[in-house]
Amino acid sequence: MTIEVRPASDFADVRALVGPKSPGANVCWCLSYRIPSKLNNELRGPARGEYVAGLCRAQTPPGVLAYDGDEPVGWAAVAPRSDTSFAHSRKIPHVDDLPVWSLWCIRVRPGHRKQGISHGLIAGAVEFARAHGAPAIEAYPVDNGDARVDMTMAYAGIRKNFERAGFVHAADTTSVLAGHPRVLMRLDLR
Fold first, then answer.
1. pLDDT of 40-99, one tens digit each?
2. Paired residues of 3 in beta bridges
3. Which of 102, 103, 138, 144 is the most exposed place for a label (fewest CB within 10 A)?
4. Are the beta carbons of 77 and 34 closer than 8 angstroms?
5. How many degrees, rounded to 5, is the angle at CA 61 between CA 59 and CA 62?
């Protein structure tokens, strides 16, 4: 299998990865960290998908998609930290004033897991951020050691996958996900 990672500009492919089975459902659509909580709470049902469709048409798409041939098999959300709720987080600290990018969600479709796609998504997100001038990229994965992470809560990624990609531990956080602490991992792109 050869995985190709491309910008997430095709809404139908983004919908296949993060959209609901029922168009009226109020699923995340990977918006909870991307937009202010008030707007996140106001967008209901189809309006959530319409908002994401607009992001896919933007000059800078909302992330990257992994493809196996023509089939979208993975998603990673990546954007300037200043454009996310991480810009104002009380639980995830700022290490410095560098205008870093954030990588906060990785999703691999069932049936395609355990094939290295998450590694490709991390690498693709790094290249996407670098191509858009990011001086560094951060992620906020769980520090689970060897403990199992529930698949629904694995979206933040796990520390060892980011370490394999060259990220280094930059700070501890007070954020906890699925019973595991989250850490701030950073990769300098300068």
1. 999 999 999 999 999 999 999 999 999 999 999 999 999 999 999 999 999 999 999 999
2. 68
3. 144
4. yes
5. 140
pTM over the 0.85 mark: yes
Q: Quick check: 95 and 170 in contact, CB under 8 A?
A: yes
Structure tokens at 11: 């809404």
Distance of alpha carbon 135 from alpha carbon 72, whole angstroms: 28
Angle, helix 11-18 to helix 46-57, in steps of 10 degrees: 130
The pLDDT > 90 percentage for the chain reads: 83
Which amino acid, 151? Answer: M
| Nearest to 3, CA basis, from 98, 105, 164, 118 | 118
Joined together, the tokens standing for residue 33 give: 């960290």
Measured in whole angstroms, the distance separating CA 174 from the mean position of its chain's CA atoms is 19
C-beta of residue 33 within 8 angstroms of C-beta of residue 84: yes
